[in-house]
Amino acid sequence: MKVFIEPIGRLINEFTKLPGVGAKTAQRYAYKVVNMTEEEAKNFAESILDAKRKVHYCKICGNFSEGEICEICKNRTAETICVVKEPKDCVAIEKLAEFNGVYHVLHGTISPLNGVGPSDIRIRELLERIKAGGVKEIILATNPDVEGEATAMYISGLIKPLGIKVTRLASGISIGTDLEYADEVTLARAFVDRKPM
To answer: Are residues 31 and 103 both part of a single domain?
Structure first.
């Protein structure tokens, strides 16, 4: 005997394809959709289709954009380029309102175990932007995990010989964290990245 009728089962199955959505959450989402008015459900479905139709990657930086070139690339100078793994990383940095440069989205990181090499992410495009001139600093803002560190080291090795300043986001112990609870890698990184007071 089927637990769910076919339309609900199919909807649950589609929701489980979203990252971080397990079976129970997908079930709650499906019930919510079924209980929406037809107008609400139509608006929900249209917003998904609208985003799929209108959101593209900026041809310069690779961030999300409605047009060929995103608003950041149109309105900011490219003297400083912040290199990130994914478009959502740009959003996290933009929320800080501290960075006034432009971005370069790699759409991945080097991960030999997963078969992802330097040619599989947007490193060549970054080098082309640098060679076009005007770039003074590259900020490497990939995640502080094994793949992010490997990617940052690889890119740094390519860019330093070009005479461009290369920096890496600092990482280490979070504010409010007790040293005894910090893992060894984070604590070691905090020592390496220490700065004068």
So the answer is: no
Statement to judge: residues 80 and 109 lie in one domain: yes
Long-range contacts of 130-135 (CB under 8 A, 24+ apart): 130/81, 130/159, 130/162, 130/164, 131/162, 134/77, 134/78, 134/79, 135/78, 135/79, 135/80, 135/81, 135/164
- pTM comes to 0.82
Q: Within a domain: residue 111?
A: yes
pLDDT tens sequence across 35-94 = 999 999 999 999 999 999 999 999 999 999 999 999 999 999 999 999 999 999 999 999
Give the DSSP per-residue string, 54-69.
H-EE-TTT--EESSSS
Radius of gyration in angstroms for the set of CA atoms belonging to the chain, rounded to a whole number: 21
Could you count the other beta carbons within 10 Å of the beta carbon of residue 87? Answer: 19
